[in-house]
């Protein structure tokens, strides 16, 4: 569990904050969703960086700096606490926030992979209640609405957290990193290998790393080149192919919903049904009936 390696978790548990959910990501990064109501938090700090996005209630939270207080004017705000920063807070109403925990190592590796630059000596800015449309959208939708424990959502989590790190480096660090320009798509032979791999493993969890490994590219460059070649981000392409297979099995076989869900890589029949309806507008049962009428 990430609680063994990240110091923020046990310190938050000493407050009135309630841990709603958490998950460890690849390479030791982690996500945690917290809620709180009325609290006074004194001198909390951690040995890692914390990107905190208020899902709602930011206006009910105050940061104390000596005799000064810093407040948010909106419900959704972004805070960035670099490692070892000591902060104190007052909470005067319901809040819900999502924390993304990462280290200097994660930032350094990303700088080297994405910009091909020396990733050492990264210094993040201290941010209080910023308005950031991209991070708010990422955290409130992709990260906030994903099922963190479902292997099917790991691709979306990989993509969203990578985007969040790149955005943080470009906008909230002392490094002056250039805007990333579109690159060419995957060569046809590489795309063919990746597509074949996906088709043969639709019933299994698929990660950005395993697909990128087929091409020898970093996760970031693979995702950009794959989208350039197909028009889909990897996680959306995989979901699309799972649903295409499900439609075939619904129309052409008598398999029950649980078996179809498993063959298409969904964790349960209910998860399959929810995703199918969200993408097609009808339930799997309704789709089967339509195809056979």
Structure overview:
The chain is an alpha+beta fold and 293 residues long. It has three domains: 2-171, Jelly Rolls; 188-231; 237-292, Arc Repressor Mutant, subunit A (Orthogonal Bundle). 44% of the residues lie in helices and 22% in strands. The protein has helices spanning 8-13, 104-114, 133-145, 154-171, 188-200, 208-215, 219-230, 234-252, 257-263, 269-280, 284-292; strands at 18-24, 30-44, 49-56, 61-65, 68-71, 78-81, 87-102, 127-130. Strands 1, 2, 3, 4, 5, 6, 7 and 8 form an eight-stranded antiparallel β-sheet that branches. Helix 3 (133-145) runs antiparallel to helix 4 and helix 6 crosses helix 7.
Could you give a short description of this structure?
This protein has helices spanning 8-13, 104-114, 133-145, 154-171, 188-200, 208-215, 219-230, 234-252, 257-263, 269-280, 284-292; strands at 18-24, 30-44, 49-56, 61-65, 68-71, 78-81, 87-102, 127-130. The chain has 293 residues and is an alpha+beta fold.
Main sheet overview = 8 strands, antiparallel
Instruction: Output the CATH class name of the largest domain.
Output: Mainly Beta
User: How much of the sequence is in beta strands?
Assistant: 15-25%
Q: Rg, please?
A: 21 Å
Summed up, the domain count is: 3
> Which residues sit in consecutive blocks of at least 5 with pLDDT less than 50?
none
Oligomer: single chain
Mean of the pLDDT scores?
89
Succession of helices and strands: HEEEEEEEHEHHHHHHHHH
CATH topology of the largest domain: Jelly Rolls
Shape: globular
**How many angstroms does the end-to-end distance come to?**
50 Å
CATH homologous group name of the largest domain: Jelly Rolls
Number of beta-strand segments: 8
Tally of individual helices: 11
CATH 2nd-level architecture of the largest domain = Sandwich
Structural class: alpha+beta
Could you estimate the helical fraction of the residues in percent?
40-55%
Organism: Vreelandella venusta
Pfam families: HTH_18 (PF12833)
InterPro entries: AraC_XylS_family_regulators, Homeodomain-like_sf, HTH_AraC, HTH_AraC-typ_CS, Tscrpt_reg_AraC-type_HTH
Protein name: AraC family transcriptional regulator
């Amino acid at each position: 569990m990430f609680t063994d390696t990240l110091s923020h978790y046990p310190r938050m548990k000493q407050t009135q904050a309630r841990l709603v959910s958490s998950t460890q990501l690849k390479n030791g990064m982690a996500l945690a969703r917290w809620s709180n109501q009325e609290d006074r938090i004194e001198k909390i700090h951690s040995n890692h960086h914390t990107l905190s996005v208020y899902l709602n209630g930011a206006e009910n939270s105050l940061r104390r700096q000596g005799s000064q207080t810093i407040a948010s004017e909106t419900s959704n705000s972004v805070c960035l606490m670099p490692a070892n920063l000591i902060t104190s807070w007052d909470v005067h109403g319901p809040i819900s926030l999502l924390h993304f925990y990462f280290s200097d190592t994660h930032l350094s590796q990303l700088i080297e992979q994405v910009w091909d630059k020396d990733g050492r000596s990264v210094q993040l800015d201290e941010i209080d209640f910023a308005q950031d449309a991209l991070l708010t959208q990422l955290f409130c939708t992709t990260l906030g609405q994903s099922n963190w424990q479902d292997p099917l959502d790991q691709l979306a989590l990989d993509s969203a957290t990578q985007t969040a790190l790149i955005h943080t480096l470009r906008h909230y660090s002392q490094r002056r990193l250039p805007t990333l320009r579109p690159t060419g798509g995957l060569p046809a032979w590489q795309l063919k290998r990746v597509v074949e791999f996906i088709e043969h493993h639709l019933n299994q969890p698929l990660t950005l790393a395993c697909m990128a490994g087929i091409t020898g590219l970093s996760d970031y460059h693979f995702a950009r080149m794959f989208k350039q070649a197909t028009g889909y981000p990897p996680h959306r392409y995989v979901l699309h192919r799972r649903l295409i297979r499900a439609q075939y099995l619904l129309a052409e076989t008598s398999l029950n919903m649980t078996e179809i869900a498993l063959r298409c890589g969904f964790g349960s029949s209910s998860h399959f049904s929810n995703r199918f309806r969200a993408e097609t507008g009808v339930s799997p049962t309704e789709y089967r009936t339509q195809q056979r009428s």
